[in-house]
């Protein structure tokens, strides 16, 4: 079985999106700067040439997230804000599990298989693990990441640290509970416009 991981672009002050995110503005006000490293270069991803990276190191990290993903788990907020990716998630052929209280209708037609999970984060991860075989389950959205950490389900954190201070918006790590979370730094890859950090969660 693979690992449960998160890959997320984040500002130096801890935000993964600006305030007032919406379908028209998925990364919120001022949040698009967090994804500039994905589009500001001329080195295409091997798996989706929509993404144009500035360095080969960044392309390697980005392509790794595609190659190791066997299933994806997101929350309903993420699903709604991105419009269900129009039915076609950028990681082609990988099933997406959406944690929600209510199943949306209609759902977009496309190549991606969506499963809507209404019975909690543990069930969503269990179903995603079964679908992923020996590959990783990639989780997305701040609330989903926080739920996974609190439930002891997350194994690795991959942060693409962007040198900007957003000041406000959606934080990746607003955790509830009194217990700290210990991390082991396992990799640092520097690129001109972003620093890629990998941490293992110590359980």
UniProtKB/TrEMBL annotation:
GO MF term set: 5-amino-6-(5-phosphoribosylamino)uracil reductase activity
Pfam families linked to this entry: RibD_C
Domain Bacterial bifunctional deaminase-reductase C-terminal: 3-190
BP GO terms, sorted: riboflavin biosynthetic process
Stored InterPro entries: DHFR-like_dom_sf, RibDG_C, Riboflavin_Biosynth_HTPR
Signal sequence extent: none
The protein's name in its UniProt record: Dihydrofolate reductase
The organism of origin for this protein: Salicibibacter cibarius
């Amino acid at each position: 079985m693979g690992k449960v991981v998160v890959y997320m672009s984040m500002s130096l002050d801890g935000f993964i999106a600006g305030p007032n995110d919406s379908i028209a503005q998925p990364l919120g006000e001022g949040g698009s700067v967090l994804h500039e490293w994905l589009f500001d270069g001329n080195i295409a991803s091997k798996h989706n040439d929509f993404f144009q990276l500035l360095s080969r190191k960044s392309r390697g990290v980005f392509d790794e997230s595609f190659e190791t993903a066997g299933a994806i788990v997101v929350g309903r907020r993420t699903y709604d804000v991105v419009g269900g990716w129009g039915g076609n998630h950028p990681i082609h052929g990988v099933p997406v599990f959406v944690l929600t209280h209510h199943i949306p209708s209609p759902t977009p037609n496309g190549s991606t298989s969506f499963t809507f999970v209404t019975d909690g984060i543990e069930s969503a991860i269990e179903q995603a693990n079964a679908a992923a075989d020996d590959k990783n389950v990639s989780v997305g959205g701040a609330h989903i990441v926080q739920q996974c950490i609190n439930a002891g389900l997350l194994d690795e954190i991959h942060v693409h640290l962007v040198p900007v201070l957003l000041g406000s918006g959606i934080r990746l790590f607003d955790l509830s509970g009194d217990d700290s979370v210990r991390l082991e730094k396992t990799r640092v890859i520097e690129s001109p416009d972003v620093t890629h950090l990998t941490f293992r969660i110590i359980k």
